[in-house]
Fold this protein.
Amino acid sequence: MRLKTTHSDSYLPDLPALAIDLPVLFEDEGQEHMGETSAHTHAAHTAYAGLLAHFADKSEYRVFANMSLYYHPANRAAYVSPDVMVVCPSRPLTGDVSSYRIGHDGPAPLLVVEVLGRRSLQQQDLTIKPLIYAQLGVKELLYVDTTGNYMPEKLQLRRLQLRDETWLEVPQGPNGQITSAFGYAVMVEPDQKVRFSNPGAKQTYPRLEETHDVITAWSIAMETLAQTKQARRQAEEQIRQLKAKLRASEGQSVVADAVIVPESAEGT
């Protein structure tokens, strides 16, 4: 019996636990003190920043990084933690959301990114997790390994075949770029760092270190704009004061002219 993903957990009492063949995984259990390399961190953060920028104008989507995804309809504690996932929630999620539960918060993720690294073997990134994602109905699974230590091709995009819950690998283009059905593209650049882009809009998204540069430039621009606005307000206040003084001096001149006795009146 194949589990069907729905937007509600109301069907659970009708499903015997033994009939659910979805693997159970507690991804980070016992691995809390195992760190990752700088290459893994750079790729994961760049993927998050790139997809965040790509889906920024699509309010129905949310992009999460390293968040617990509770997926099992019977074992409520089972979870995986994708490096990045894109979801389409069925209810509003607050800004401080700490986890995502399929059924309660919305359907399964549309897209998952797994950056391979030191913890990938223990976390079953290439074995159990693809099976879980396929059964859940995740449409695309992107693997990133900029070091080539775990995957020689460094990038691999898999697209789900719904008819049999298997994955079809999306071929790379001539320049090593892979294009997603969601409109973004990804490649490993000559400096062995990953790059996300929007080929339709001919737009590249900032990498991790470039994101800092963009934020810095934005902050400088905002500070300059604030200074300009302040200078404008000061100039407008000075003009207002000058106009007030001018009106006051004109009023005094009118009063002085009114009290002057005409020469013709002095001889009478």
